[in-house]
Amino acid sequence: MSQSDQYPKVSIILPTHNRASFILETIASVRAQTYWHWELLVIDDVSDDDTVRLVEAIDDERVRLHTTSKRLGITGTRNEGLAKVTGEFIAFIDSDDLWAATKLEKQISVMRQYPGAGFTITNGYDFRSLNEPISYFYNQKEGVRYGNVFIPFFRSEAAATTPSLMMRRDTFDKIGPFKEANPTVYFLDLARHYDAVILYEPLFFRRVHDSNYSSLNSLTRHKEGIEIIRSNKYQLPADVYRESLFRSYMNFGEKCLAEKKWRQAIGNFFRAWRIKPLSVVPFKKTAKAVLQYPK
Prior knowledge:
By secondary structure, this protein is an alpha/beta fold.
């Protein structure tokens, strides 16, 4: 067995824009991987802070910096990286997030164990302070799941977290680049064509702060999620379609309630009730929002 067969190369794409305060910690978590055969493609999207200088100072030939000529945004920057990969596997990490040291090693292992899988994703958690999880992506924290995950995405049994993803190079050759800002669309394209492995061990740690995408665009992400569900209506069993819409409206209503956006919360609970009029849950949540509404 050749070295390339035994240790296939992983191309890691790291898009960044003005992340001088986080990017060295992120790159350190890549360099700390127990699996050594990787290249890190840092694609800087016209940063005007110290991001480029900090990356240039890293003494590791596996870390390769590329700069865009104009602002591309997260989707365009990821696609710039995809155009430059040389590895047999492709992985992603955002410039404010972290990996467990064994992430690549364990994902390569399951991809060998399940040669029919086109991609693998892992568990992980959100954090503000290191080693202090806020919430996990999956309640299950050990074991694996193999098979088609298209419908499980709509059942909230699979999470579309790009920095947890590793995919075979030939899956990218078939699926092509990212076409939408919401990564869920890309995950669904993968899941339409390929089986997957979910690693339930938490191996990816998503930093929560006031300037990251998930914090700034919750309403936009909610609307995108609803549109994704509706656009896949005829690919889903009717009960899965309804439950997915119901859950999305309820979850966003809960988020609005927690943020004291009472009118928005009530509106989403009402939409959920229209989908499942026999459910008492939206009614109870609406009553709670009404009682909390400032008089």
